[in-house]
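User: quick one, sequence for these C-alpha cells?
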C-alpha cells in the first residue's frame, strides 16, 4: 500500500458514492412489530350539574292547614283527650304480639331434652269424671311432634295430668286447679286458676300463665320453666319449691324477657329459738 499509494488511500469524492453511505441507512426497514394496541381514548367529561328544584314557599296551603290544626288544639285545651276511646289490654297490638310469642315458645311442638327416666306406659284417657275433674292420663307424643290435648274447663274443674310424655295441654278457660304428676316434657297453657298449680315427680315441664294464678308449687321436680305474661299477675303470685332444681320464671312482659332462677339452696339459723331460713347467696363480695 505504501508503494502504490504514497499519499494514502483515495476514497470516492461524491456523497452518493456507496463508499460514503451510512451502513445503517442502507439497511432495509424493519417490519412493524406486533406490539400492544394503542390505549383507548379518555372518557367524555361529566354532564353539567342540573339545577336543584326550587323550594316551595312557606306560605302555601299546607302551612295554612297546619296553623289551623294547632289553633284547634290550643282551643280545646285539657278537653282534647275526651274524644279518645279507651283500648282494653286484650285489644292492644303490642300485647297481642307479646302473648302470641309467649304461647309460641311452649307450643312449638319440638323439644329435645336429655331424659334420665321415662314414665310407665298405660291406656290413654281423656275424660270428665263426676263433673268436677278432668282426667288426662298417659298421653304420649314424640319430641318432634307433641300430642296436643285441648280442654274447655270451668272454674269448678280440677285438671289432673298423670304420666304424660311429649304432650301439650291447652286450657281454653279458667279452672279450679291443675295437678301434674310423673310427667316428662309436658307443656301446659293455663288461662287462670282459682287454686294452685302443682307439679310433682316430674321432669322438663313448661307452664304458661296467661291470667292470674295464685301459686305454683314444685315438689321433686327436675327442670321447670314458668312463663308469666303479666307483671300485675306476677306481683300476686307465690312460688313454692321442695326438692326441686332448675326452676326458672320467664318474664314475658319485659322487653328482654328476663329469666329469674328460683333458689335451690337455703341456709337456716336459729334466732330466738325459731328457725330463720334464707336462700344461699353465691355472689362475690
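Assistant:
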Amino acid at each position: 500500500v505504501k508503494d502504490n499509494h504514497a499519499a494514502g488511500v483515495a476514497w470516492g469524492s461524491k456523497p452518493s458514492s456507496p463508499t460514503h453511505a451510512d451502513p445503517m441507512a442502507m439497511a432495509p426497514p424493519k417490519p412493524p412489530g406486533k406490539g400492544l394496541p394503542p390505549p383507548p381514548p379518555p372518557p367524555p367529561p361529566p354532564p353539567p350539574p342540573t339545577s336543584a328544584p326550587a323550594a316551595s314557599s312557606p306560605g302555601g296551603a299546607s302551612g295554612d292547614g297546619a296553623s289551623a290544626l294547632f289553633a284547634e288544639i290550643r282551643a280545646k285545651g285539657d278537653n282534647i283527650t275526651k274524644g279518645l276511646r279507651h283500648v282494653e289490654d286484650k285489644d292492644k297490638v303490642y300485647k297481642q304480639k307479646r302473648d302470641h310469642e309467649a304461647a309460641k315458645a311452649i307450643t312449638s311442638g319440638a323439644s329435645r331434652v336429655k331424659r334420665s327416666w321415662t314414665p310407665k306406659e298405660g291406656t290413654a284417657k281423656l275424660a270428665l269424671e263426676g263433673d268436677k275433674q278432668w282426667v288426662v292420663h298417659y298421653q304420649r307424643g314424640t319430641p318432634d311432634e307433641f300430642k296436643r290435648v285441648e280442654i274447655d274447663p270451668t272454674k269448678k274443674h280440677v285438671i289432673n295430668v298423670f304420666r304424660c310424655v311429649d304432650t301439650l295441654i291447652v286450657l281454653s278457660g279458667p279452672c279450679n286447679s291443675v295437678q301434674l304428676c310423673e310427667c316428662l316434657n309436658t307443656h301446659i297453657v293455663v288461662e287462670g286458676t282459682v287454686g294452685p298449680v302443682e307439679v310433682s315427680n316430674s321432669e322438663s315441664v313448661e307452664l304458661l300463665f296467661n291470667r292470674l294464678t295464685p301459686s305454683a308449687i314444685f315438689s321433686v321436680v327436675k327442670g321447670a320453666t314458668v312463663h308469666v305474661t303479666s307483671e300485675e299477675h306476677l306481683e300476686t303470685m307465690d312460688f313454692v319449691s321442695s326438692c326441686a332444681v332448675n326452676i326458672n320464671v320467664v318474664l314475658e312482659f319485659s322487653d328482654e324477657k328476663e329469666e329469674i332462677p328460683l333458689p335451690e339452696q337455703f341456709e337456716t339459723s336459729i334466732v330466738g329459738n325459731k328457725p330463720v331460713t334464707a336462700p344461699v347467696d353465691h355472689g362475690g363480695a
